[in-house]
Amino acid sequence: KEQRATWLPAMLGGGLLGSYCLSEPTAGSDAAALATKAVRDGEDWVLTGTKAWITHGGVSDFCTVLARSGGP
User: Fold this and answer.
1) Do 21 and 34 meet the contact criterion of CB atoms below 8 Å apart?
2) Which of 17, 36, 44, 48 could form a disulfide with 67 if both were Cys (CB 3.0 to 4.6 A apart)?
3) In the chain, how many domains are there?
4) 18-56 burial code (b ≥16 CB/10 A, e <16)
5) CATH number of the domain to which 27 belongs
6) In this predicted model, what pLDDT tens digit does every residue of 26-68 receive, in sequence order?
């Protein structure tokens, strides 16, 4: 609920632009073949990997990144 209250009003009002980061150079949009990893580091997450073909990627205010954080 807190996330919704923080992000949704500005998104729905057109004040924020987001991007959806799924595609990778070697996997395309096949989510089962994702190689990007997310590793917890204290309270943060560290991402390693490469995303490609991200619509609005260069101008978005935030990104939703699909990554592996554990086993299959």
Assistant:
1) no
2) 36
3) 1
4) ebebbbbeebeeeeeebebebeeeeeeeeeebebeeeee
5) 2.40.110.10
6) 999 999 999 999 999 999 999 999 999 999 999 999 999 999 9
Strand pairing partners for 44? Answer: 41
Where would I find the beta strands (DSSP E) of 1-72? 18-21, 37-41, 44-48, 62-65
Domain extent for 24 = 17-72
* CA 1 to chain centroid: 19
pTM as predicted: 0.78
Cβ atoms 37, 49 nearer than 8 A: yes
Q: How far is CA 24 from CA 17, 51, 54, 64, 72, in A?
A: 21, 5, 9, 14, 18
Of the candidates 7, 18, 9, the one whose C-alpha atom is nearest the C-alpha of residue 58 is: 18
Query: What's the one-letter identity of residue 38?
Result: A
